[in-house]
Amino acid sequence: MLGAAAVWLVLAQGFVRADDVIRAEVACSRQTDLPHVRQLAFDGDPQTAFVSAGKVAAGDSFTIRFDRPVDLDGIEVLTGRGGKDRLVAGALEVSNDGKSFTKIAEFKEGLARSAEPRKQVRAARVFCPSAGDEPLVIAEIKLETPARVERFKYPVEFVLDVSQAPEMKDWATKAIDICSRAYPMLNEELASDGFTPARVIRMAIRKDYRGVAATSGDRIVGSAAFFKQHPDDFGAMVHETAHVVQHYRGGGNPGWLVEGVADYVRFFKYEPGRLGRLNPARVRYDHAYRESAAFLAYLVEHYDPRIVLKLNAAMRAGKYSD
Hints:
Distance between the termini: 49 Å
Order of helices and strands: EEEEEEEEEEEEEHEEEHHHHH
Helix content: 10-25%
Largest sheet: 5 strands, mixed
Strand content: 25-35%
């Protein structure tokens, strides 16, 4: 627990899109100075950086873990931003089991680099043996490896609040893990020129919320009562995360299409085959949710494979019209 309000910061993860892609996850012993989220340390851009909340303390660490061993030829970690906040005293360590770490380099002027004979690595970390006067700032982790390790193209971090329902912590943590893994897919399916998705998403599980779940901006709320009764319905939270990605402004977009797009990425991309049966005698394209999702899938298959992208871009830009 990270505070008296029972708020946990949950680590966001990448999304596996192919069997040969290795997924990474990142963790830090310190909280995040939002919006400088942890995934920014492995996004391929040294101009962005993870920044910790508060100064470095003795024993602090920042760890990157892989879902299976990586053949590593070399690794480099750059700290600091704009010539400031460089790590002065620190070690770069690796682990072949994700538990026991061995030092392979020390930081000098904010940089640690190692190029040793190839070894299999499950995790690497920055370890701080002593306290400092600055926050921990990880600008970029660079790997030399023949493996396809997926960087965080859409960095995100979820902030979870279960202060009203602490018994839902384990469920909500799993929900956030699932939504985090789906986040790259959601952004690819709903991409448009010039759009930068949210890097911080706040999710609360509340006892006083009477619906299922809802989204406003980058905030998601879910019903503790509903998810206690439906613990396998993680797709509902993927649907809400899709609303965060949609980021529509104004009231000119039809509700059936807004919900239809969110359910399309849920039922035809995240959990295909779970849409369920629709009654052809009663179904309408504008009934929203599953029915509109099925309509969109029909259009994608028979008329235009980019129709959802086009509709999403129009609604995001406030240019949709019937």
